Amino acid sequence: MRQKKKLVIFQSDPHLDQLSWQDMADQWKRELGKYPAEIGAYRIMLMKGSLRADSFRDEIGDADAVLGPGIHPGLVNETFFQLHPNVKYIATLDHGYREFDRNITKKYGVTVTNTIYGDRTIAQYAMALLLNICHDVSRNSHFTKNEYWEKRSRNEDVNYFSVMTPQIELSGKTLGIVGLGKIGSRMAEMALGMGMKVIACRRTGKPGASSAKPADSLKVAGGTVEQVSFEELLERADVISIHCPLTSETERMFDRSAFERMRRGVILINTARGGIIDEDALLDALNTRKVYMAGLDVVAEEPPAERLPLMESPYTYITSHIAWQPREARLRAVKIAVENYISYLHGKPVSVIS
What we know:
By secondary structure, the chain is an alpha/beta fold. It has helices spanning 21-32, 57-60, 78-83, 102-107, 119-135, 137-153, 182-193, 230-236, 256-261, 279-287, 309-312, 327-345, and strands at residues 7-12, 42-47, 65-68, 89-92, 111-113, 174-178, 197-201, 217-220, 223-227, 239-242, 266-270, 291-296, 316-318. The chain has 2 domains: 7-117 and 327-345, Rossmann fold; 119-318, NAD(P)-binding Rossmann-like Domain (Rossmann fold, 3-Layer(aba) Sandwich), CATH 3.40.50. Helix 1 packs parallel to helix 12 (327-345) and helix 5 (119-135) packs across helix 7. The protein starts with 6 loop residues before the first strand and ends in a 9-residue tail after the last helix.
């Protein structure tokens, strides 16, 4: 009989009013309980901060598989595999991951996977940022519910049909998607449904770095996405939405030269990683109105050590990396992570990134 694997799960505190660490632990138990024939001993550990090669040494011990940590060079390295020679499977609960040494995982025969749990969720949030820029419903609602009546009470001349912010129609405009993976594809589907034209670059890189225009287009639900080079995307897009991972190739790919190539008045959305954008260059582009508005769920340093100049700009909406956080998405991440682990145990790994 095949010996069952030892599994360690690291679950961070979700920091949500609607979902506790215990809720997440209970979800793990429910999902693991569906596979009694495959799952052996397991432990669920509260993870505070980022798991690194020499942290939680005793907790991981002789485990065969580790689920939950972020994938980054501080974890996936020689030290970790020397400390834990039994580990042959690592799965992050995240969509995204930092660049790491795939030669090391190959050397030690380790499979690394990510968890595609929130493609619709994160794309929905990216679209919410865009729609907020186009309509600012909260600002206009505040006028209707408060300012209008305050002015009337003072007998001031006020028009009930006043518009507090410019209203922008997206139909007919061009959305440029940088990174046409699962999330980018969902963003494309929504944009096509709103009557936008969608272009995308899949293999990303800084201007001049192997980003030649592909010859084909890609079919997604609702229409066709034209694949173009990064440079062409910058020149044609009315809206740019970033959905690529942060790697040595994409770090600060939105630099001053990239902003110079963009159309005047472009809208920029980023729900991927803050380091993809040169924040000083973005601020300058906002101040000169080359970029009309930016909707950012991420910044380069999280949490920031001090208030960022971008936070002072009237041309930004910035939130605290929350696109992934709906309760449904967090619970679904556990379900998918367990299913991925079972696929690995059956010799058919999925969502493999190394």
